[in-house]
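Hi F.,

I've been meaning to write this up properly since the lab meeting, where we talked about keeping a consistent format for the predictions we share between groups. The idea is simple: the sequence comes first, exactly as it goes in, then the structure tokens exactly as they come out, then a line or two of notes. No screenshots and no reformatting. I'm using this chain as the first example so we have something concrete to point to.
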Amino acid sequence: MYYHVDIAHRFDPESVLTGYLNGFFPMGEEDGTIHWIVSDPRFVLPVGSMRVPKSLARLDRKRPFEFRVDTAFRRVMEFCAQDRTEENRSWILPRMIDVYCELHRDGFAHSVEAWLGGVLVGGLYGVSIGGAFFGESMFSRREVGGTNASKLCLLELQRRLVAGGFVLLDSQEANDHMAQFGGEEIPFEEYRERLELAVQTPAAWDIAE
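Output, unedited:
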């Protein structure tokens, strides 16, 4: 269940980081309003023990895409911001893209990208603070050969988080797409406890490739 949180109305890199540190995350509305949200229960994915469907594991071993990190952050957000269907409208506003790009320049926001023949076909983005990574959104461009690209980017993210010493992967709220990877729903207060420990845990995003 989502709960709106009434905090400062400004939306800039500092307020976004403060929101994450307190367990909140932003969502935009069509009228341009940005709400801060608490999800209770909270859905988290296991770092280092993610469950991978057999068919996806086989595809992953074939390495069908070239994976890059942080080379096309704005483009990843712009693709994530496209409406999926009339019922599944994007919550990512242009203002949010600008602020997250600032966070990217400051070393807090990151993208994992799948490329095929020099074309960006899938990706995901999120925010890292200490040993916590807050996953935000992902996309696949099936029309240009990117089928399952977002899922493989998630596996690539998992490898990077394990190598970098991360301990928390926040996925906000459960859905069928993410549940297949073996996440768990936990009460928000438990999430806050895990979050407090995670953000104080030293971790490195910029590990050797």
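Notes:
The first strand starts at residue 2 and ends at 5.
The domain at 2-199 is CATH 3.40.630.70 (Aminopeptidase).

If this format works for you, I'll send the rest the same way.

G.
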